[in-house]
Amino acid sequence: MTPDIVGKIFALSCALLWAFAVILFKKSGESISPLGLNLFKSTVAALLFIPLLIIMGSPFIPAEVTAGDFLILIISGFIGISLSDLLFFKALNMLGAGLTAIVDCFYIPSVLILSYIFLGTPISLVEITGGIMVIVAILIATLKIPDGKKSEKNIALGIFYGTTAMFIMGISIILMKPVLDKTSILWVSEVRIIAGVIGLFLFLAFQRDRKTIVRSLLTVRNWKYAMPGSILGNFIAMALWVAAFKLTSVNSAAILNQLNTIFIVIMASLILKEKFTIRRFAATILGFIGSIIILIF
Q1: What is the pTM of this model?
Q2: Integer angstrom CA distances of residue 205 from 35, 42, 200, 201, 218
Q3: What does the domain layout of the chain look like in residue ranges?
Q4: pLDDT tens track for 78-99
């Protein structure tokens, strides 16, 4: 089996595991707040990445990085994990796993726009078309309330949280790219996660219900879904993501990773019993195709 095939298997496995992790996070949201869940999964990932760095022989402080690089990664981790992931979990609670997966397709157009603004990367007409398809997919999926349990206000707020999360994540990626180009992906990931955890602890300190949040995190029965979700989504899937980009082409890995959108919608229907309507199916396919168009061209 060639490295390219192995890389593609890793990318597909990453998409599948992340989809399952999102389902677990949705279940965890029934007993843990978005802030608490983000703090839990980020702390677990930070602790698990330390032995992985040792096994991979990655230095804890690479010689090629500067103080400025550290600062950039701290900012990237703060906005990309403390803020973006917090908004993601809020959207997940409000929209459900299926709709959140469709809204998350906004991530790729966000990176496209930000790359153009900050890195000067040109945008082709085909890429613009793909971005429009993603936005239309989100509108198709969310303009009509999917079920009676979700109010119009919650749908609108969930869309706002989800799209903002993807846009902020795009900014964090643009920020870290210069550092990522010259050092270990695993090391960059660990620094960002640690920065995110510190930021989340700062958020927690200013919460009036911080004692309740901490209590929910220390309640072992609440780990039933949160712990496997954290290990699968923020550790194993991340490791597979890194390996996929190393062994196969960037486009191949990214396209296979984007399959998580379809996996999440299917799992949300089968496991969480969320409605799987023709409208949602059409939005899922349109959003996926729009993302693939951007990635390929």
Answers
A1: 0.85
A2: 11, 17, 9, 6, 16
A3: 3-296
A4: 999 999 999 999 999 999 998 8
